[in-house]
DNA sequence: ATGACCATCCCAGATGGA
């Protein structure tokens, strides 16, 4: 079973790229971030024609997350973190699919730092950490997947020294990441590729993708029971080179049958 | 060290992204 995460940077603007990649790769489950569309503009018809069912949680202009499945029913369990109000930004969606609990998330960017946006990022992070504890304690097989907007280590940034004051690489954000992982989660890509340079995002500017001036900010965290089932963890670089593409590349993991 | 590019939306230029 392949499970993917893809920050599409506008689900309607990137629809041809998304559909081409779904057709090519055929992941069973996909978490999408940055829909940038209100709920009524989610392209559900095109996604159904591609063979997927979906749930989504959008808002006008910004944010927005979705979970797609071609393997079985999507049983939604949450659409916001505990502690978030009804009017919160659309950044979290959780569902049981084919025997696994999938949490699709889009953690706030947090720039500029310091400032209210960074405070919101860290507050959101704390809510995620508290809820992740509950998910671990449930004993269920759980995957936290999405755009965490954090590069955990220097290996995850092309020029670490340029990013130390940025909200994506700030000590507070990295500390929160390691506190989350320290609950007992496994970073799937690093587990299988401990020493490789792996990026999931490249700016549009200055030929960043061609220069491989990238960041690793899209992640999969696995609950302990899933680690033995992890057989692959990859980033699809090809779609990042397509015309009218997202600034992120899709990442995916493959789990053996449980 | 800075600015570069892209999407969205009452369609122009502000805002957010990372």
Give the spatial strand order of the biggest sheet. Answer: 3-4-2-1-14-13
Based on Cα principal axes, name the global outline.
Answer: globular
What does the largest sheet look like?
6 strands, mixed
Provide the domain count: 1
The CATH fourth-level homologous superfamily: Endonuclease/exonuclease/phosphatase
CATH topology name, in short, is Deoxyribonuclease I, Chain A
Number of strands: 14
DSSP summary: helix tally: 5
What value does the Rg take, in angstroms?
17 Å
The top level CATH class name: Alpha Beta
Order of helices and strands: EHEHEEEEEHEHEHEEEEE
Unreliable residue stretches: none
Mean pLDDT score: 96
The CATH architecture term is 4-Layer Sandwich
Q: Termini distance?
A: 10 Å
**Helix-residue proportion:** 10-25%
Class inferred from helices and paired strands = alpha+beta
Strand content of the residues, in percent? 25-35%
Task: Summarize, please.
This protein has 258 residues and is an alpha+beta fold. Helix content is 21%, strand content 26%.
């Amino acid at each position: 079973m392949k499970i993917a995460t893809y920050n599409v940077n506008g689900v309607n603007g990137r629809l041809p790229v998304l559909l081409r990649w779904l057709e090519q790769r055929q992941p069973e489950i996909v978490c999408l971030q940055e829909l940038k569309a209100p709920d009524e503009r989610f392209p559900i018809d095109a996604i159904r024609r591609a063979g997927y069912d979906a749930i989504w949680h959008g808002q006008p202009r910004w944010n927005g997350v979705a979970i797609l499945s071609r393997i079985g029913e999507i049983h939604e369990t949450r659409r916001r973190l505990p502690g978030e109000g009804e009017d919160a930004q659309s950044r979290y969606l959780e569902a049981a699919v084919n025997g696994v609990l999938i949490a699709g998330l889009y953690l706030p960017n947090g720039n500029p730092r310091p400032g209210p946006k960074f405070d919101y990022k860290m507050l959101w992070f704390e809510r995620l950490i508290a809820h992740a504890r509950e998910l671990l304690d449930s004993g269920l097989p759980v995957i936290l997947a999405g755009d965490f907007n954090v590069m955990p280590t220097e290996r995850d940034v092309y020029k670490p020294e340029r990013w130390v004051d940025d909200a994506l690489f700030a000590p507070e954000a990295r500390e929160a990441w390691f506190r989350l992982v320290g609950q007992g989660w496994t970073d799937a890509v690093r587990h299988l590729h401990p020493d490789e340079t792996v990026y999931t995002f490249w700016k549009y500017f200055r030929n960043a993708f061609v220069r491989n001036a990238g960041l690793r900010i899209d992640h999969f965290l696995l609950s302990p029971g899933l680690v033995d089932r992890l057989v692959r963890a990859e980033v699809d670089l090809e779609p990042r080179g397509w015309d009218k593409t997202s600034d992120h590349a899709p990442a995916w993991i493959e789990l053996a049958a449980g």
